[in-house]
Amino acid sequence: MVDRRITELYEQAGLCFTSITGVGTITAATILGEFGSVRKFSQPKQMVAFVGIDPKLRSSGQHHGQVQISKRGSRYLRRSLYLACQVAVRNDDYFHSIYQQHRDKGKSHKEAIIAVINRFIHVLYAMWRDNRPYYDTDIASYNKKDKTSSTALSLAILGR
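Given the sequence above, the corresponding structure tokens read:
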């Protein structure tokens, strides 16, 4: 009953978050409910900070330069995005390649997933702003040395 009502409300919003692998109706409704509106954010970095996965420097006494996530935002939203990204890393080539890049740099699993969540939010922002579904593309066509911006990459993923 509750799941059916959530599905109805999400479909009325006319968004297509479920086009991303790992995002079901409940996760999409959580994202919509926690963020409210994309108009509150002028850039995706603000959404990242809202979720609470932006880096925060902690140093005290003998411990200098420890970096953690800020955890400022909703723990329910962070958990939903974490679980969605776990699935996306396993089943989506684009998000898997981001995860693998960070693992190849020696990052832990959690650090790599946080990087994937960060990019995931950037993609969500572009989808929401442009009201377009997610299209998986071949990541090999993206080359960082070409200085292609993350916005241009997000647009490429969205099929523009």
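Helices lie at 2-13, 25-35, 44-51, 75-91, 93-104, 109-130, 150-157. Try to locate this feature in the token string yourself.
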